[in-house]
Amino acid sequence: MTEKLTRAERAQLEAELAELEGPRRTAVIEAIATARAHGDLSENFEYHAAKNEQGLLEARIRTLRGRLLDAEELDESQVAAGGIATVGSTVDLEREDGEAMTVTISSVGGVSPESPVGRAVLGRSEGDEVVVEAPRGAWRARIVGVRAAP
Questions:
Q1: pTM above the 0.85 mark?
Q2: 76-148, which class in CATH?
Q3: Which residues, other chains included, contact 7 with Cβ-Cβ below 8 Å and sequence gap of 6+?
Q4: Residue 130 carries which DSSP code?
Q5: If one looks up domain 4-73 in CATH, what number appears?
Q6: Residue 107 CA: distances (Å) to CA of 28, 50, 64, 86, 96
């Protein structure tokens, strides 16, 4: 499934990638060089920690590049058009127990479209009853409102 991103979400991922590929990568390389200068690498904790951090950093960079390459950018003027919940929408829910909750459907810093709540509300509109199939049990809610995320 192609990941859908708003322009703001794409910009957020691009900014993170720029930070990782620039200052963070430089800092890790410097940490490795400093640790290497301490001598015997077989018992050098700082060297092994810095190499581990480098591996995690490079993995995150590959992940971000892949996400950005494969992502489809949404037309933000169409997000929540006609009151239909999409990626980039903020959805107000009223749970069957009376609890109100507001979620933003987003692959970047919100409720993932692949999460139980995301799957339940995508494509639905105000007034619809949804069933959220969560790991700790299913629960029902009514969609009170759908709007473009701020």
A1: no
A2: alpha beta
A3: 73, 74, 76
A4: E
A5: 1.10.287.180
A6: 27, 29, 12, 11, 26
What's the full length of the chain, in residues? Answer: 150
In the chain, where are the structural domains located?
4-73, 76-148
If phi over 0 gives left and psi between -120 and 50 gives alpha, with beta otherwise, what is residue 13? alpha
The two three-digit tokens of residue 120, written as one number: 């339940």
Sort strands 137-148 and 89-95 into parallel, antiparallel or unpaired: antiparallel
Predicted pLDDT of residue 63:
93
pLDDT tens digit sequence for 61-79: 999 999 899 888 877 666 6
Q: For the chain, give the longest Cα–Cα distance.
A: 67
Name every residue whose Cβ is closer than 8 Å to that of residue 60 and which is 6 or more positions away in sequence. 20
Neighbours of 138 (CB within 10 A): 10
- Per-residue DSSP letter, 39: S
Residue 72 CA to residue 5 CA, distance in Å, equals 6
Instruction: Yes or no: say if 148 and 86 are a contact pair by the CB < 8 Å rule.
Output: no
Q: Is 127 left (phi over 0), alpha (psi -120 to 50) or beta?
A: left
C-alpha distances in Å from residue 60, one per residue of 7, 19, 21, 86:
21, 11, 10, 26
